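Same chain as my last thread, 334 residues:
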Amino acid sequence: MFATYLIGLREGLEATLVVSILVAFLVKSQRRDRLPQVWAGVGAAVALSVVFGSLIQYTSTSLLRTSESRELFEAITSVAAVVFVTWMIFWMRRAARSIAGELRGKLTEALAVGSLAVAGMAFLAVVREGLETALIFYAAAESVAGGTGAGSLLALIGGIVTAVVIGFGLYRSALKINLSRFFTWTGALLILVAAGILKYGVHDFQEAGVLPGLTNQAFDISATLDPNAWYGALLAGMFNITAAPTVLELIAWVAYAVPVLALFLRKPSAGPAKPSAGPNAPAATSTEPAATRAEPATPPVEPATTRAEPAAPAESTAPAARPQPAAVAPSPRA
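reply #2:
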């Protein structure tokens, strides 16, 4: 349950932040007349996401007749969900600082085109989150014992409602949340959830006969990790950690969780940004000295007319100083 709640909270908050940026931009730019188009685009994106999720569920329960085909379908959706989760987490960390500016720029262009463009822009900004939520929810819910039942669906809706409340509070400046830290913690938890989804996908591939080793267990700690206890159910429901995994399931879980979590928690290096700015700064300073050197080229002409400073032109104006006395010498003879 918590895994689906976390998915709804994370994806819902991302979509809510996108919508709040669009709404705030229209309000501040005195374009409230375009708000209905934004809400229309958001509503269409939500409707398409619900249809997409229903289609996935219908395909799994009604269109696929054999158990092997259903297992294979669930395995493929699990792998696809892991790919989307990984991409979404790293994309959000990279684009968090520039997403507001990009959205404002796209909305400005859409306002110049017309109301349909505004609705389309809002639709595209939200539909990605909705489709990801539907796919990840299905994969995460199927990886636990409850499946896509009422409990998992309520947990997902609860996470989305919580995200909407948080987003509205941020929009009204009623809440002060460190979004960077929030997305870091939820991203780390989602990586563990994705590792459990991948483990479940590998198990489905084994049940479908695509991968071997269904009966080759890595270990069995059922005596220590009781699956019927609350902690066993919690670990299985959140991260799909079971007491008796197969060897391939364990390899998939560790091979994904360890390197991806290490890359995600590693602080992004600010090194490349500084060197890029460094060469530009010296370049600017090097051109300025060049301009300052070009200016002193004219002052030596003036000292040439005044004989009181013959030592200063000795470096660069010596040739200019010698013709001057030759021209002045005839005047005393005259």
